[in-house]
Design goal:
mainly alpha, elongated, 6 helices
Length: 182
C-alpha cells in the first residue's frame, strides 16, 4: 500500500534530486560544485578584450561620478532659487526670469543625472549637450566637459535596453585581473 505524499514531501524529494545532480559526490547536503570566483553571465563579455573592458569600467565610473556632480549642482541651484525667493529684499536678489532659468537648469541637471544613473539613451545625448556647454567654463568646466565627452563617446554599450550593467562589468574585470586573463 502506497501512502500519498503531501506537497512538502514532494518538494523535498525534488530539491534533493536537484542538489544531487548539481554536485559531483552525490551527497545532497553538500553545496553545488561551482567556481566561486567566476562571475555569473560571463558570456556577455566573450567579444570584449580585457583592455576594452577596463576602458568600459572606467567610463562607467566617470559617468556615475558625473551623475553625482549633476545632482549636487541641481541641489545647489534649487536651494539658491528657494533662498532667493525667501529673501526678496529689494534689488539684492535676481529677477524672476533669472530664477526661472536657474530653476529650470537645476531641474534639467537632476533629470539628466537620474537618466544617466538608469543608463537611458536620451540621457547620454543630453549629457553630451551639457558637456559641450561645460567646455565654456574654463578651466574646470573644460576639463570636466572633455572627460565626459570622451567617456560618453566610448561607452555606447553602457546605454539602452541591451546595456552592460556596471556591476557585471566590474565583476568581470576583477575576475580577469585576479586570474591574469589578457
Amino acid at each position: 500500500m502506497e501512502l500519498p505524499l503531501d506537497r512538502g514531501a514532494v518538494g523535498l524529494i525534488e530539491s534533493s534530486a536537484k542538489a544531487t545532480a548539481m554536485n559531483t559526490t552525490g551527497n545532497p547536503y553538500l553545496p553545488p560544485q561551482t567556481d566561486p570566483v567566476a562571475p555569473a553571465g560571463r558570456n556577455h563579455f566573450k567579444d570584449i578584450a580585457t583592455a576594452d573592458l577596463k576602458k568600459l569600467r572606467n567610463d562607467s565610473h566617470s559617468i556615475r561620478t558625473f551623475s553625482v556632480l549633476l545632482i549636487l549642482g541641481a541641489a545647489l541651484m534649487i536651494v539658491g532659487v528657494v533662498v532667493s525667493l525667501l529673501r526678496n529684499e529689494g534689488g539684492a536678489t535676481m529677477g524672476m526670469a533669472e530664477l526661472v532659468i536657474v530653476g529650470a537648469a537645476g531641474g534639467l541637471n537632476l533629470l539628466t543625472a537620474i537618466g544617466l544613473m538608469k543608463r537611458r539613451i536620451w540621457a547620454r545625448y543630453l549629457a553630451m549637450i551639457m558637456a559641450v556647454l561645460a567646455l565654456l567654463g574654463f578651466p574646470i568646466g573644460t576639463l570636466i566637459g572633455i572627460l565626459l565627452l570622451v567617456a560618453l563617446g566610448r561607452s555606447a554599450r553602457l546605454f539602452g535596453s541591451d546595456r552592460l550593467d556596471h556591476k557585471m562589468i566590474d565583476t568581470e574585470w576583477r575576475y580577469r585581473k585576479a586570474n591574469k586573463i589578457p
